[in-house]
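Practice set, problem 2.
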Amino acid sequence: MGRKKIQIQKIADEKSCLRKQGLFKKAYELSILCGCDIVLIVFTKADGLYQYASESIERVLERRRTHKSADKVLTNETMRKVTMVWKLRKKRRTVV
């Protein structure tokens, strides 16, 4: 059975805990499967702090700070646009 698409909106607190766990699991899997360094930092509205790092946070953040394209950051707005482009490309492929 396929997964149902969900509307992107704020979710209840009890589900946000499960979402955070899923996000950290995906970060771990991505670091293993792709052999990349990942740092994930989550601040909650209640000022909670959750962190994951595949390696030393300090080392990865130093690499980011000194990287030649360190000023390129994906924001929510950028991700909305990128997602829209992906959907349009997929739609175009199915039409052709």
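Problem 2, part (b): a different protein.
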Amino acid sequence: MSCAGPSLSHPQCSAAGAESHRGILSSDRHAGLLLAQMNKMRLQSDFCDVRLLVGGRVFGVHKLVLAASGPYFAALFSGAMSEAHEEEVRIVGVEADVFEILLEFIYTGMHVFGCTINQISNRDYN
């Protein structure tokens, strides 16, 4: 966490003999921590506001997180689409396992592949 910026005196504070500082408070970890907490909430079905039905499976998600992840979900959950007001929305054209990987990436920014570096380097690509 850091605080940066010029020191500025506020008239009311200066009159009282105190100095006011304005600046920027920032944290490189904030976004990651926030995303991790939202993913934890998703996995525990806390505050999920829509259920997505994908290939026979149900995924509880947060509309805001998915809408922020890209234009497809932003359009899906906008007021112009009928799905915007539904508690359950069917997603077609994608397998549940693939969709789960997509959700994992949306909520964490990463995906752990199912093979190791040794498996990749030992594979015969000829």
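Answer key, part (b): The chain has a mean pLDDT of 83. Residues 101 and 113 are 10 Å apart (CA to CA).
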